[in-house]
Amino acid sequence: MRRWNGWGDDTITTTLAPDARGFLETAIGQATATTDATLAEVCARIDREQPSRFLAVSDLHPLVITAAEDRLRSGFGQSMGDWLRLRFGQLERITDGVAYPERTGQVRELLDWAASVDAVVIPCGGATSVAGHLAVPANDSRPVLTLNMSRLRALIALDETAQLARFQTGVAGPDLEAQLRARGFMLGHFPQSFDYATLGGWVTTRSSGQQSLRYGRIEQLFAGGTLETPSDTLTISPFPASAAGLDLREWVLGSEGRLGVLTEATVRVMRLPEAERFIGIFLPSWEAGVAATRALAQGRVPLSMLRLANPTETLTTLRLAGHAGQIAWLERYLAWRGAGEGKCLMFIGLTGTRRQVRDTLGQAMAIVRQHGGVSTGSLLGKKWAKNRFAGVYLRNTLWATGYAVDTMETAVPWTATTQTMQAMEEAGRKAFAAFGERCHTYTHLSHVYATGSSVYTTFVFRLAPDFAGNWARWVALKRAVSAAIVASGGTISHQHGVGRDHAPYLPAEKGAAGMAAIGAAIRHFDPQGLMASGNLTEGPTW
């Protein structure tokens, strides 16, 4: 069963090697695990302190469930704020009911019912948000209904000639790809949350997959669909291209549940590739790594993936990997080849026909060698591919040993990439220094473009003994790093959406006119405020 207060399947656990724990203790100090609240304790607290407001509704819809555990499991995502509330049992206000529509028509029915009882509606896909998308607005006295879309997961139609697939939007990554693979096709959208995140969530948060260099971000994959808004049904046809006015797809992309509920989505798919390889390459320095990465991106080398870890992330990856003897041998070899202290680890993905993979590798290595790159072949690439969706389980393991992990990400032009990385890391360190704590921080470029790159920074820190202490540290981190992103001219979100946690920083990016336009669109499609979750426009409860 899926964990209710952490990541993933509760039968899957990872271990932290002694050397890895020693590395963290040296970096930020010895940690002490906290005691988690139990599921039974938290559910009892919900029943006692937050009885459902729907219990007072005389004509309760038959699909609405008010049980505490359903409300708990659909009411939180995977942000550090969500984790802290669940682990310590400090829930604040949660959703009042959950409905699991099994037909797309039931979504319309539930929206109309919610309007009739003056309820707020929050759509939920895989509950993998790290930006507070599922948080209940604390200043709204109306009951809140969560629409859990996870039972709407069918492949409705596949046009093999046009390579268009129409899905119900509650389909999660593995199910979506399995249905396509059975017909010889694939979508190719692989965020780290792939195992649980849904198509609807990808579209409405503008998600980016690990191999978006080949397959495209979700905005390139999303061709059309059906959005059930409180006021009407918006249907968007999947034209190959159109010059007919504003692109309504762009109104749905990034709408984060404020305009309505996306029930169906048509996506552009591809034939399954013949071959695929992932290669690990070490560069002698950050400067050399950035130069090589930029040259690959601007040279339009047809890679399916390109990512670069900075020296601290490279060191952390090697130390947390275990197998100390093998890693020591690898580092001696790399130092001999000129990639010693300060080295950076690059991964490239190659996908297509066998000939395309071979030719692309040749093009990539010709560029990388000019910058001192040393290939390790498929050795590290195979290990990365095997664990590409399992690495996030380390969050559970670290928590159990007294450490927490959070991430922040942005995207900036190449001229600002290094400065933004340094500003984000320094902001995190200063935020924890104010509490007398150290923070281990590192960064990688997860997605690259001809004009710039994403900057994805991780922060590892010790847990405080209580909820209040941890909450204060997390809020300080969020505020400091968000401010650093804005000051650097970066977007407040490259791939995770805005939600409520990042909403205060959206006006700096969109401007007054842009925020007014967003507000006008929300009022047009939702004049009653049915979808008033606070995403995009209001901000966090902290």
Question: How would you describe this protein?
Answer:
The protein has 542 residues and is α+β, with helices and mostly antiparallel strands. The chain folds into 4 domains: 36-150, 2-Layer Sandwich (Uridine Diphospho-n-acetylenolpyruvylglucosamine Reductase, domain 2); 155-271, Uridine Diphospho-n-acetylenolpyruvylglucosamine Reductase, domain 3, CATH 3.30.465.10; 275-388, Alpha-Beta Plaits (2-Layer Sandwich); 402-487, GMP Synthetase, Chain A, domain 3 (2-Layer Sandwich), CATH 3.30.300. The chain is built from 19 helices and 18 strands. The strands form 4 sheets. A 7-stranded antiparallel β-sheet has the order 15-12-14-13-17-18-16, sandwiched between helices. A hairpin with a 6-residue loop joins strand 17 (439-445) and strand 18. The longest helix has 21 residues, at 467-487. The two termini are 31 Å apart.
